[in-house]
Design a protein that fits this description.
The protein is α+β, with helices and mostly antiparallel strands and 462 residues long. Helices cover 24% and strands 23% of the residues. Helix 1 crosses helix 3, helix 5 crosses helix 6 and helix 6 crosses helix 8.
């Protein structure tokens, strides 16, 4: 079926009560010759202090668990020699300037929990389409927000023994790194576990090369975080009300090509919108497909404004450009919006044009203006501050998540955890089948999700 929805699994619900933590340890860099290091958090990092930890879940099949756990811990201790910041903690000076602190002698390290859930099979996890809440006990730090990195590890890993494989749940402090840095670290860790004597691409660790303005924030403890974070943490529930549903929609390579071809057809644009000189990219085409479908599913009034948001990588946009190996956050949210009636009454090129223009306009000058504006009046974002009736896209199908091989093959599935989800949040991943296939994780209010599941145009059944 076109736009396949991951297989329905009412018969294979994951019983998270069967997940038992066996032990928890701290892993530090193998060589304790790094000394004391401090790295100032910069304007690209600070707005995410009140986001939740960024969670990823990777499922592997046919793994010798006990041997693998020790091998992965050993590999982690080696890769942390380069990525030592992840073994540190958040700190701040007397003026309220936040930083990452590392010291060979401090009580730090990456938290590694070993767990057992031998009644859960790999297929129970890879076939689940209804989202992260069904396997949240396989991923650490649910409902924990990033400012807690003042007294928690910046990375927590949970390795869980399954009946026929292994699950690897990771929680990264989002104030310290973005998606590009996350997968750079994961692929480097995997290289060491596969027998590399050193990683192929060391991280670029000096954040002040991209921004050196000291921003003073008056955040002293987790209780100072925004109300949404305190409420979610106390309830152990990162969803907002009304209740959300999460769904994974799988688009094959041919279906992605079909969407892109349709968007790039020469359909006349409205007279008030200039026709772009560049064809629409795969990302712009798929984003428009999702934005239109979600807007239909929400049944908005024609005059209601709907906002599209993408968290864009700025490594090549800043002046001077930063290397791909830049370690930290180097993303900014890019916004565009229109009335729901305008979006749906026009051909898909209309929405694609808005997205394309917003992305192209976000150049070094725009980034600099955004940074100066924020620094003059710092605002700690809520994780759901993405816009009205929004569709907000995170992650990227360009991340080579299925290349993260620790020596026992590619993962069977890669998914986001339950943190940082709200109505309209979308995560994109490459499809397991490879090529140009893309998996689309969507969180929506329940009734809107029910309509989206029946939308033949979205599912490419029309």
């Amino acid at each position: 079926m076109a736009g396949e929805i991951a297989k329905e699994n009412s018969q294979s619900q994951v019983n998270v009560e069967k997940v038992k933590i066996i032990n928890t340890t701290r892993v530090k860099p193998k060589k304790t010759t790094i000394g004391r290091k401090e790295c100032q958090l910069v304007t690209f990092d600070l707005p995410y202090l009140a986001f939740f930890y960024n969670q990823k879940l990777m499922i592997y099949k046919g793994v010798d668990f006990e041997t693998t756990v020790e091998k992965m811990k050993d590999g982690l201790s080696v890769v942390l020699e380069d990525f030592y910041q992840l073994a540190g903690k958040l700190g701040k000076d007397e003026e309220g300037v936040f930083r990452v602190e590392y010291d060979d002698d401090m009580d730090g390290g990456v938290e590694v929990a070993v767990a057992v859930a031998e009644e859960i099979e790999v297929s129970d996890l890879t076939n689940v389409d209804e989202g992260s809440l069904k396997f949240k006990d396989l991923v650490p730090y649910n409902g924990i927000f990033n400012i807690e990195g003042l007294h928690r590890p910046l990375l927590s890993v949970q390795l869980t023994k399954l009946k026929d494989g292994l699950s690897m749940g990771c929680a990264f402090n989002h104030a310290v790194l973005d998606g590009t840095s996350t997968w750079h670290f994961m692929s480097s860790w995997a290289e060491i576990c596969r027998g590399f004597t050193s990683i192929s691409s060391p991280p670029f660790l000096d954040r002040t090369q991209v921004r050196n303005t000291k921003v003073k924030l008056n955040l002293n403890k987790p209780a100072d975080a925004p109300e949404h974070a305190k409420t979610a943490a106390s309830n152990g529930d990162t969803n907002i009300k009304p209740p959300l549903r999460e769904k994974v929609f799988k688009f094959s390579e041919s279906e992605i090509d079909q969407i892109k071809t349709k968007i790039n057809n020469n359909v006349p644009l409205p007279s008030d919108q200039e026709e772009g000189s560049k064809p629409f990219s795969t990302f712009q085409s798929l984003s428009t497909h999702v934005w239109n479908a979600v807007t239909r599913a929400r049944q908005l009034k024609p005059e209601d404004i709907t906002v599209f948001t993408v968290f864009a990588d700025c490594r090549k946009r800043v002046d001077p450009p930063m290397p791909e190996s830049y370690f930290g956050n180097l993303i900014q949210a890019i916004f565009t919006g229109t009335a729901a009636g305008m979006l749906l009454a026009n051909p898909p090129q209309f929405g694609a044009g808005l997205i394309q223009k917003a992305i192209e306009m976000h150049n070094a000058t725009a980034i600099e203006e955004r940074n100066k504006e924020w620094e003059s009046n710092p605002k700690i974002f809520e994780y759901k501050d993405a816009g009205l009736n929004c569709v907000a896209v995170g992650s990227s199908p360009r991340f080579k998540v299925y290349d993260v091989d620790f020596g026992f093959g590619s993962p069977e599935s890669v998914r986001s955890g339950s943190n940082n989800r709200f109505d309209g949040m979308v995560y994109l991943y490459p499809g397991k089948t490879g090529g140009r296939s893309i998996d689309v994780e969507i969180s929506l209010e329940a009734s809107a999700m029910e309509r989206l599941e029946k939308d033949k145009e979205f599912l490419l059944e029309a």
